Amino acid sequence: MADLLLRNVRIVSCSDDTAAVSAPGFVSIDQGRIERIGALHDLDGSMRAEHEIDGEGRLLTPGLIDCHTHLVYAGDRAREFELRLQGASYEEIARAGGGIRSTVRLTREAGDDALEAASAVRLRELMRHGVTTVEIKSGYGLSLADELKCLRVARRLGERHPIDVRTTLLAAHAVPPEFDGRADAYIDEVVQHILPEAARLRLADAVDAFCDTIGFTPAQTRRVFEAARAHGLPVKLHAEQLSNQQGAALAADFGALSADHLEHLDEAGAAAMARAGTVAVLLPGAFYFLRDTVVPPIALLRRHGVPMAVATDCNPGTSPTTHLPLMLNMACTLFRLTPAEALLGVTRHAARALGLAANRGSIEAGKQADLCLWDAEHPAELAYAIGASPLRRRFHHGREHVL
Length: 403
Ligand code: NIG
Ligand code: FE
What we know:
This protein has 15 helices and 15 strands.
């Protein structure tokens, strides 16, 4: 007997690139895994389950995957938001010692418990919008102790909430104040101490860097990637967000899971990503909040067959949001993705961006039973409404939790 039977649901399995909707069907779940999927008329009397739920013809999708967040931080940057409204640019604020560094100050001051409590508020919001797997980066500690603290908090959030957390070490996010003007020396610290220690303690599932004019050079990024490779960790990259540094091609050279942002991506970068199987992670929240005008080259990515994921980029400076369905709307409205592409971007392709495609991101027998039931009949409705959250029920490892 199965643990749970979801019947009378329209399934968007996301198991191929169509995001097609099935005729009313059923999904059975056993021990946290999807056991069987079928059409309603195949549901004979022999199919028994401990619990049954009538989906009343609603849409069932895989649980959403937010594959790019900076969720663990303290404080906010509302003051910086005001400065930008008065005309200062994100880069100017960063160069004047604000931006990422101001969040670093507050995050360093916060103890583990305070940092966890502040981050848990955001994590619960993500869950209420249907997220069942989230990636969380460090990057607001920028010292050995503080980077490990952020990763520890991220791990603990995953242990204490019904959501899977994947952690990414982003020590190469900005140059910390004590290394002012000595970016190479800070990269020494990252590759000799921070990264090896995070790997030894198994606190990081991947390694990321910010390769840009206000971040790190391609040569510095390469050193971080080489250290990641030496420790057996896959890489990702904040690439071509504010300028073209050929970061996507560099990431692809290292077989990166993903290259993220990509507003300034060129053809050579897209071709390299396609060859390496690197996912393009689109972050429309940051594009919107920074009032960017350069749109990521979606047609180029499509032409090269690069899978596109969509994520919140939840962070205090460029994308203070936990609303993944809103990102679907923005990806369609601002980047011209189709609603089907947007949905695949937070399921199938997001799983791949985290190296989790084998057991997440689609509704298929044997995969983890992370599912969302929506007050909707068609995937376009998920992307259509601005800021609505039509989530009806959410299942994590086959279990429903009060959120
Ligand atoms: O993904 N671009 C770099 N990192 C973040 C922003 C971090 C911040 O401003 O606090 C991003 O946009
Ligand atoms: Fe980011």
